[in-house]
Amino acid sequence: MVRTSLFLTVGILLASSTSWVQHAAAQQQQQCNGYAELCSRTYDKVAFATTHNAYAITPVGGLATNQVNNIAVQLKDGVRAFMLDAYNSPAGNPNEIQLCHGVCKLLDGGPLTATLQQIKTFMDANPNEVITILWENAENLKPAHFQAVYSAAGMSPYLHAQAKGAKAWPTLAQMIASKKRLVNFIDAGADASVPWLMAEYDFVFETPYMIPKGTAYPCTVDRPKDQRKQMYVLNHFISGVFNVGSTSIALPQPDAADQTNGPDLITHINSCQTTFKQIPNFVAVDFYQKGSLLESVAKVNKVTWNGKEATGSMNKSGGTGAGGPSGAGVNGGMNAAAGSILGAGKTAAGLLASVAGAVALVMSI
């Protein structure tokens, strides 16, 4: 009897230990957007690395190019929110949307269907990731137009709808469990007919997006005018200006991006957190592979950065301090990023060709 009782006790202990180890392993493996600590956070309390004009990658070194890596690579690297611009399909296809910058003749990023397929492929393979798209509805497309393209791309099972006025967002873990983990905001044209395409300014405000090179990084409410919201976009990308007659064209500044997305980004984040007393939810940059975007966003989220470098990153900035309340003053300091849009010899030819194309485009309008 003693031997039998001993075997039973040992068996129970082993079974309990195995169960505990399995539970602990499951808990350890559970991550949301790459970090276990984010699983219990509500969506509105999380910062997301965001790419401005995420689709604007061609021509390389072109006048309107804002990124280098395509969206599939951006997702692999850890970018979780994407700014996209919607235009009518040049072919007039009602079931397609074109991703263009300014006008399609200046930069055509291709059909939305291709981009949604990249996002869907990633989401299918990575079930613990919450993704956001921030739409600029450049040609005032109807929500039904977006609905048609998303449905055709097979995105419907992933679409999260948040009721206007609802203050309680789900946690990332809840969104992942429900599979409703693709959030879509649009700056204009939303209506109740497509509830998942949410009016951005019901939930989000933005800091100014036009930041000329050599000026202060602002921590003010730009859109909607003087209206604070539950979340905000920290627009952090600088522009040079190219004048053609009375027309001014904003030029991205790739050669300044190490400084812009490094020390300047940290200063801007800290300044706006001090000013607004809330974290920036969407930290939006050009040329995200330069500087320290991913590390800075991890610090805003108060998680230990996983050390993963962006594809094409030449070096680690080593900057520290983002995410704390002790940042620079309200204006976030001056953006003193060195370098000209024409500074890198390897991109000069492409830039000059793009400038020539832009001049021809402006003259033809």
Automatic annotation (TrEMBL):
It holds the Pfam family PI-PLC_X. The keyword Signal applies. Residues 1-26 form the signal peptide. This is PLC-like phosphodiesterase. GO terms for biological process: lipid metabolic process. It comes from Linnemannia exigua. Keywords: Signal. GO terms for molecular function: phosphoric diester hydrolase activity. SUPFAM superfamilies: PLC-like phosphodiesterases. InterPro entries: PI-PLC_domain, PLC-like_Pdiesterase_TIM-brl.
